[in-house]
Amino acid sequence: MVTPKHVCVIGAGVSGLAAAKAFSNRGHRVAIVERSSDLGGVWEPARSYPEVQTQSPKELYRYTDRAMPDGYPEWPTGPQVHAYLADYARSFGLDRMLRLDTEVAGMARRADGKPGWTLALKSKDGASTHEDFDFVAVCTGQFNEPRELHCPGEDAFLAQGGQILHSSKYCDPSLAKDRRVVVLGGSKSATDIAVNAVKSGAREVTIVMREPVWRIPYFIGGLVNFKRILYIRAQEEMFPGWGMSAMGRLAHRIAAPLVWANWRGLESLLKAQLKLGRCNMVPKERIEDGVNCSVPIATPGFYPMVADGRINAVFGTFDHYDGDNIVMSGGERVGADVAVLAIGYKLGVPFLPEAYRQKLVDADGQYRLYRLIANPDLPELGFVGFNSSFCTVLCADLAANWLVRYADGQLAKQPTAQQMRDNIEMMLHFKRVERPAAGVYGGLCVAPYHYRHFDELMADIGAKNQKRGGLAGRFQPPDADAYAKFLATAPDYRAA
């Protein structure tokens, strides 16, 4: 027998909706706490910059139980994704669980001695309440709290009419018209905003990044959808994984020349297609050494605009502001009216008590999470959406299905606390020593090991069918419909 729980889901984005549905489907009472005035997380209209669209094709950016509308383009826009999420919430009654404009100000173990947590909740008008929950799912993800960057001279820059804003606040393209726009960052949001500024009539556009990085076009060679090259099991197996046997390591050594040729061929193709040499943007790093969640999609038009001078690319970072100029770390001065900081978001769970944060995050910023979902030393607590990837929605969906079973003790392979700790240590060693690129974003990235991660979750859940077999299965990207069928083969239960 599984006893119904009162569950708090923190965050109403992609991950929060997945967690709320998974727990409510199993008979638990769910409250979704969201500090914003709308659901959607990064796809909330108030947080979306102009012309934003998914990096992943819509077949990879969806829940297992709801496809995106047929009328959507292959790479849906921000408003389309938000509409999809809102429809998902309405269809499954998740909208009735929402508590918008409600922030988690803190949490502590329940004082009555029962399992669970007491959450301090603060409404938009400042009123505070405390509420007990039997289980808490943290679904704030990695794009929650914008990073800040303060440099000497910024007060004077602002006083003489300059503007400094995070990329999440670049919501009105008229902001760029007839002005000198400087974008700091090398992510897709940075290149998207730089291109948008050019299209919006900016007088000058400069993008500042530390160094060139590999970017993947939507169609490699202009013909092949990148999902059919980078998101297939066969390509994933070219990367040495964790916990490899001696035979597995031997096989990788034997195949090393072919694997090397594969990556050099891809690099050559990208250099030619994107004209990286002409743009002076050939990365120094080998592409296979840096494949992770930070590899961005090439914004259409970005490289041509760099090549013809409509976008000026500077390598370095901001050092200080001087009047209406920004001085770079290399000494270059760039005139600016608007500085857009596309520098990402802070990782963290600020409402978690410090003693528990120390159990969750090591000194070097690496997260201690089994399957990137749970920590044995944080009882009645789990994380959904911390298993970041280009298949963000599918990752969150499968993590949510894993977490509810873990919370209910219903995993087919329910781990002991010691098994979880041993696995966490093994994975941390892999990320720190064997593949440092896996340590990006605090180690909360499953790319390029999507299939390996999904296989582990499916096996833990007890799905009788866990993967598509045969040659076709090795050369197909992840399929949400297929995983819906795999989940249907797992043992069923309901809290009562």
Automatic annotation (TrEMBL):
Any one GO MF annotation of this record: NADP binding
Source organism, top-level taxon: Bacteria
Regions crossing the membrane: none
UniProtKB keywords: FAD, Flavoprotein, NADP, Oxidoreductase
Key word Iron present: no
PANTHER family cross-referenced by the UniProt entry: DIMETHYLANILINE MONOOXYGENASE
The EC number(s) this enzyme carries: 1.14.13.148
Species of origin: Bradyrhizobium frederickii
One Pfam family cited in the UniProt record for this chain: FMO-like
Family assignment from sequence similarity: Belongs to the FMO family.
Protein name: Trimethylamine monooxygenase
InterPro entries reported in the protein's UniProt record: FAD/NAD-bd_sf, Flavin_mOase, Flavin_mOase-like, FMO-like
